[in-house]
Each structure stands twice: as structure tokens, then as C-alpha cells.
Design goal:
272 residues; alpha+beta; 11 strands
């Protein structure tokens, strides 16, 4: 007689599948998964090896957070087609969750990088760095737009791209280099949101790949024009041509209480 045809007690069967006996008892009570036999003398539940694949399917669906009533429906109409449909749906859900977790990881890495940089950075320094192309969600602003209107615009964009929480993204402001060169240091024209893993779409702003001039400004934002003058002097000294937009982003907002400690990262594309 094959060992696979021998009966297992509820304890043995539960241990085989790494679950509690009470789980098997509950599955039996709700008609989801019943034992192969019940001893008429003592009422003990008995299972056999051939029931294992069925139970493992149920446990897999439970792990995938498929509701009990849906699993019950599937068990009443078990077929390859029905199982495939269930798994197709859950694979799609998992793909979304994986994408979300990858985006969260990217955000965490950015925050960690910013915090590590804060511990060692020379705020007075100006450097040239290499950056990859970025797809940015932007909203147009002007001096006539109120702060409340800016918040409404940002909120609308976060909903459109299913962002969920602002901490899932990096965000800041943009000012044309042409405005800065003309001395219009308050001519901010866009707010940007950098959403991790956002793929290219025609309505997005492209921050080009290549060399960028990077600098930092700490403290009173009214003094940021002086920092731009230092940036332009650095560019002229090193024969660098700046173009496009200056991208400003706060990098320590989550660890300060005073505006005097606020640090703005400034990045401007360099031609050539």
C-alpha cells in the first residue's frame, strides 16, 4: 500500500503545511476544505496526502489576500480556467505593489543620500555633476497665483498620477535661466514633482541628461539672488554656459524647525 494513501491526523496534516489545527477546523466549519474522512467513533478528522495540493492552493490564495468568499466560490467551481483568472488578477495586483515598493525604495534612497550629504557637504562649494534624464510633472505658476492656488494645482497633479503621498516624490520650483541672467530672481514659472519610476509621457517636462552645476543656499530665501550671482561668476570663470531652468529643491525640510536652517539645492544644466 502506498504511503501516500495513508491517513494523516489533523495535527500531522497541519504540521505538514505549516499551519495551525484551528485553521483546518475553521476551513471545515465554513465548508471551504473538509477532511477526507471523519472517524465515526471519536469524530477525529483524517486527511490524506492527495489533499495537499488543494490545501496549498487555498493557502496561496489566502497569502495573496483573496477574500474567503471568492475562494469558496472557486472551490465550488474548480477549474484551470477559473484558477488562471484568479492568478491573472493577483499577478496584476502584485505588479502594482512591486512598482509602488520600488518607488518607495527610490524615495528612501534619495532621502538617505540627502541626509548623508548634509553631514559632510560644503555649503559654500559649487560643483559640476552628471545627471540622468528625468521626467517631471510640472504646474505653471506666476506671481499672481496665491499659495492656496498652488496647493490646489499640486493636489490635482498628485491625484492624476496616483501619487498618494507627497513624501513619495521630490518636489521643488523652477526658474528660467534667462530670467536669472536678466536679474529677475523671483520669476518662478513652474513647480515640479519628480515621481519615482515615472515613465515618459508627452505632457511631462524633461530635465535633460548631462552636466549640471550644483550649489546650495542656506537660510533666508531673500538672499538667494546673491547665491545666483556667485553661481554665474563660477560659470564664467570656468567657461560654462548655463541654459534651460534652474531646479530648486529643499533637502532638509524634514529635520529642521527654523527657516534659518533651510537648505535649497540648486541645479542648472550646462551646455556641452
Amino acid at each position: 500500500m502506498s504511503k501516500k494513501s495513508q491517513s494523516l491526523t489533523i495535527g500531522q496534516f497541519a504540521a505538514l503545511h505549516g499551519i495551525n489545527k484551528k485553521t483546518l477546523m475553521w476551513y471545515d466549519e465554513i465548508g471551504l476544505f473538509s477532511p477526507a474522512a471523519v472517524n465515526p467513533e471519536n469524530g477525529y478528522r483524517c486527511y490524506n496526502y492527495h489533499q495537499s495540493p488543494i490545501l496549498e492552493t487555498i493557502l496561496l490564495l489566502r497569502e495573496l489576500e483573496v477574500p474567503i468568499h471568492i475562494i469558496q466560490d472557486f472551490m465550488k467551481n474548480r477549474s484551470a480556467e477559473n484558477l488562471k483568472d484568479l492568478l491573472d488578477e493577483k499577478i496584476a495586483d502584485l505588479d502594482l505593489r512591486i512598482t509602488h515598493l520600488q518607488a518607495v525604495r527610490t524615495t528612501l534612497c534619495t532621502h538617505r543620500q540627502n541626509m548623508a550629504a548634509l553631514l559632510t557637504m560644503d555649503l559654500s562649494g559649487i560643483s559640476v555633476i552628471e545627471k540622468k534624464e528625468r521626467c517631471l510633472v510640472t504646474v505653471d505658476i506666476s506671481k499672481d497665483i496665491t499659495f492656496e492656488e498652488e496647493v490646489e494645482l499640486i493636489t490635482a497633479e498628485t491625484k492624476k498620477y496616483h501619487l498618494g503621498r507627497l513624501h513619495h516624490a521630490a518636489y521643488g520650483s523652477m526658474i528660467p535661466v534667462s530670467s536669472l541672467l536678466n536679474g529677475n530672481f523671483d520669476d518662478y514659472s513652474k513647480l515640479f514633482i519628480e515621481i519615482p519610476l515615472l515613465t515618459y509621457q508627452t505632457n511631462l517636462h524633461i530635465s535633460p541628461s548631462g552636466k549640471y552645476l550644483r550649489a546650495f543656499h542656506k537660510g533666508d530665501l531673500d538672499k538667494i539672488p546673491r547665491r545666483y550671482e556667485e553661481i554665474f561668476a563660477f560659470a564664467e570663470k570656468h567657461g560654462l554656459t548655463l541654459h534651460g531652468f534652474s531646479y530648486e529643491m529643499g533637502i532638509n525640510e524634514n529635520v529642521i524647525d527654523r527657516i534659518e536652517d533651510y537648505i535649497v539645492q540648486i541645479e542648472i544644466p550646462v551646455l556641452g
